[in-house]
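Pipeline run #58 for the internal structure catalog. This entry was flagged by the ingest filter as a single-chain record with no existing model, so it goes straight to prediction. Upstream metadata was stripped on purpose; only the residue string is passed forward. Reviewer on rotation: M.T. Logging verbosity set to normal.
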Amino acid sequence: MKDQTRGFARHAENALYELRTVTMAILSSIPGGNLTGTSLSKKLQIDKTLAWKIMKFIESSDILIGSQYIPGESSYRNFITKAEKSGANREYVERAGTAYKGFLRLMQKYTGDRASLDLMLMGISEEGCQKAFQEQKKSNFLSQRFLNGISASVHFSVHIHPKTDDSGFMKAVDVSGFTNLLRFRKSPCRMYSALRTLEEPGEADVTFIRKPLAIESAGKYTIPFFPEYCTCLMPQPQDTDVVPGLDDLLPDDIADIDNQINVVTADIIQFKGMDSSEVSDDVNQYYAMMSSRFPSEVLLFDLFLHRDMNFTKPEVKVYNDLEEIKDIPTRANRPDEYRFPFDEKITHMGRGAFCSQIREAAWYSEMIMDTFKKLGENDEEYDLYRVRIPYPYIPGTILLSFSSSAT
């Protein structure tokens, strides 16, 4: 596969450089020289957009990115025909026709259509790949929203890591949810996205316990709703292995975009440090993880760390997860080839819940303040680190790793 990629790159660069070189030769041979897009349009009496594309192609510092400005076949033929009539060197014009045929052969051999070729060319340019990646993520979101029939404005997860208590246990809080859930089409084919469900721990499960933050346990299975911030709820599941899905919360009809549906769950995770961290050389290594499995305009991952725990600034890794891996350390040690480096940005927002505001939901920071109150913790003692990803790739995983000195 890698040999095929290198072969494509060589073929592409040869074709593009030849086409650009001969196009520049044509322009330099037109009497009057030093043409701009506007003067080229007037000189050759061609469309302004065509003239602009010609100039963008030859002036691009990265020929792979610049290739997207190469005009279509009929437009380029019009350009060289008008150039010859305006006095361009005929040998250059004929050579340009041959060079364009070489460009067409490149397209026919590798993709069969121009749009796919443009993406492949962008993909072998570091700058172009990043640009195309961000553009295609939005296209992916729009496709997933239609195919699955539902989407959210924001898919968020808030992790809070307080200090270890005197018994050696550490508590972590996970508040997760969706803002502005909407159904976009009626269809018998629906998306199943399970609501978070906690199972009542057995008597032996004393080193790792999850329980609801805002409600009482409802029996063997509990959906840990945060009722104050949910616009709709459902009955708790009975003793069954069938977990309700997000789709079950939505009305059957296509929703009014002004009638927002927000769903939030919150649970406390209590664990012994050694069971949820890797310890070596007196350093505890911790992980916080968020899965991207739902069509959302924004993915938001907020991590609050207590200032007294001497945590390092978290590192973020974003993985392509066509095959889900449950074990967190295994995920953290996967090869870099499975990562999306363009989305790996983490920001220190400051200290306290006030720093957590987002424009998509005015109640978001209030929800976090309320969470700290239920924990009995002072939010001003916590630093907030945020990962914000527009149009997150699905399926994927966002993994935050951070460490502290063992005490």
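catalog note: The longest helix spans residues 2-29.
catalog note: The chain has two domains: 2-124, 149-405.
status: ready for reviewer M.T.
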